[in-house]
Amino acid sequence: MMYPLLQAAVGATKEYAGAWGMMGAGIGAGLAVIGAGIGIGKVGGQAMDGMARQPERAGQIQTAALIFAALVEGVALFAIVVSFVIQQKFTF
User: Fold this and answer.
1) Domain ranges (residues) in the chain
2) What is the pTM of this model?
3) CATH for 21-88 (1.20.20.10, 3.90.650.10, 3.40.50.2300, 3.40.50.150)
């Protein structure tokens, strides 16, 4: 199934390669956002579970969850910026 697509890519022109680059940048940005959403959802869910199990440690758990959510968001933002930089490399 992939063989005809790879054959077509071998004889690609500059515009054709640019289209693949743009599509890859869009897919990369989308996957970064989806991954960040899943990651922050898991951090939040596990934090709520931890606070329900140990209410006396709720402040510490909340602080740690906020830091982890910020780190996940930072990685996602970096991935989106890299996708936009890749997108800007291709001009038509």
Assistant:
1) 21-88
2) 0.74
3) 1.20.20.10
pLDDT per residue of the chain (92 residues) written in tens, 0 to 9: 566 666 666 665 666 667 778 888 889 999 999 999 999 999 999 999 999 999 999 999 999 999 999 999 999 999 999 998 888 887 66
Give the amino acid at 1.
M
**Residue 34, CB-side half-sphere exposure with 13 Å CA sphere:** 6
Q: What is the dihedral of CA 27, 31, 37, 42, to 10 degrees?
A: 170
